[in-house]
TrEMBL record:
Superkingdom to which the source organism belongs: Eukaryota
PANTHER family the record matches: RIBONUCLEASE P PROTEIN SUBUNIT P40
Gene Ontology cellular component list: multimeric ribonuclease P complex; ribonuclease MRP complex
Stated name of the protein: Uncharacterized protein
Ranges in coiled-coil conformation: none
GO terms of molecular function: ribonuclease MRP activity; ribonuclease P activity
Xref: Pfam families: Ribonuc_P_40
One BP annotation, GO: endonucleolytic cleavage in ITS1 to separate SSU-rRNA from 5.8S rRNA and LSU-rRNA from tricistronic rRNA transcript (SSU-rRNA, 5.8S rRNA, LSU-rRNA)
Length: 375
């Protein structure tokens, strides 16, 4: 046997939560402080969102849901950091905390800037940190060899003292003009309810020629696949935590194979066991009838509020169709890399039926931290 163990994999973690989906009411805000919506809120900006469901659910729900769901859009612009602190854009968007922004660059290597809820975070090397004159703190390197020391500077621009003419603010302006003055490519997402927010942001940044882009949408029909028993009823109340963990890990692996379009889950798959010994989980029990799957994928830049709207609309539409009440649905998202060590890489939320609650579903959520490879 060959040992393919890698040291970086020891830092990868997955936090699993199991519970009941809260009751949702149309035209009301989702319960952001209840699971699994807390998981959605923790990842403010993601680059890929995928929804996986059986084809019969897709046929019954997607056409009506599509008309209610706003298309995710974002702005791409090339500008220096000082542009965030000038003119109408600073007063209207930055001070109100209604935009999410991230610059290009690799965390832990390049200078990376992010703006979230009015807080500007600057990740810079030691040389620029010392020349900027701004207060910050060292960034964890994870014990990487030959990694140069880096610092993070966090500035709350929503504070009343963050105004032109104030000494602390002018120090930040000086650092942006004289030290952190390189032009970078930014992505910008408005996390506000106004439909005209992106157009207003484009007008405020007009001299930098910003572009409004639509997230790429892809719809994939999978061949008929073997479906594992997706229900918490498969785990008796007397089961140990280890049994529950093993079940969740097997389901997570199966969902990952669906997302990768792997032929291993197809009912017609034939492969030499020397190459792959994968089998659908719980093959010894009675598996559900094989069915065709559909996945919907968006790629670009999306705020957590849009993903919450997507998930909420889907659950509400599912409850309107009695033939879809006992159907499962999986929502996955991949977040942008913001830190070099133990980055919050994304999550998967599986909505599954429960016999004890015929009008409601339970959920299993996986929060992935510290992946060695990130898109």
């Amino acid at each position: 046997m060959l040992d393919f163990a890698e040291g970086a994999s020891a830092h990868e973690k997955s936090y699993i939560a199991v519970g009941q989906l809260p009751e949702l009411v149309e035209d009301r805000r989702p319960p952001y402080r209840k699971a699994p919506f807390t998981t959605l809120s923790r990842h403010a900006l993601v680059h890929t969102t995928e929804l996986i469901m059986p084809r019969e659910v897709y046929n019954a729900i997607w056409s009506s849901m599509q008309d209610k769901l706003a298309k995710p859009r974002y702005i791409q612009v090339i500008m220096p950091l000082i542009a965030l602190l000038e003119g109408d854009f600073f007063n209207t968007f930055v001070k109100s905390g209604c935009v999410l922004m991230q610059s290009e660059g690799r965390s832990g290597v390049d200078d990376v800037f992010t703006l979230h809820n009015g807080t500007l975070t600057l990740q810079v090397g030691k040389d620029k940190y010392e020349r900027s004159g701004l207060a910050g703190k060292p960034i964890r390197s994870g014990g990487r060899k030959h990694a140069k020391e880096r610092f993070a500077i966090e500035i709350d621009l929503c504070q009343p003292s963050m105004l032109h003419g104030k000494r602390a603010f002018e120090r930040i302006v000086w650092a942006c003009r004289n030290v952190l003055n390189a032009s970078l490519t930014w992505i910008l997402v408005c996390d506000a309810s106004s439909q005209n927010s992106l157009d207003q942001a484009v007008a405020a940044l007009a001299k930098y020629h910003p572009r409004i882009l639509d997230c790429r949408f892809e719809e994939t029909s999978h061949p008929v696949a073997q479906i594992p028993p997706l229900s918490l009823d498969e785990i008796p109340p007397s089961s140990s935590p280890r049994d529950l963990e093993e079940y969740c890990n097997e389901v997570s692996e199966w969902l990952a194979l669906v997302s990768l379009r792997s032929p291993r889950i197809s009912v017609d798959d034939v492969i030499d066991p020397y190459l792959s010994r994968y089998a659908v989980p719980h093959a010894e029990s009675t598996l559900p009838q094989p069915t065709a799957l559909v996945s919907l994928r968006w790629q670009g830049a999306m705020a957590s509020r849009w993903i919450t709207q997507l998930f909420t609309l889907f659950i509400l539409e599912q409850r309107l169709h009695t033939d879809c009440l006992n159907a499962w649905t999986a929502l996955s998202a991949s977040a942008f890399r913001r830190v070099a060590v133990e980055n919050a890489d994304g999550y998967t939320i599986l909505s599954i039926p429960e016999k004890a609650r015929p009008m409601g579903n339970s959920f299993i959520s996986w929060d992935f931290i510290g992946a060695s490879l990130c898109t």
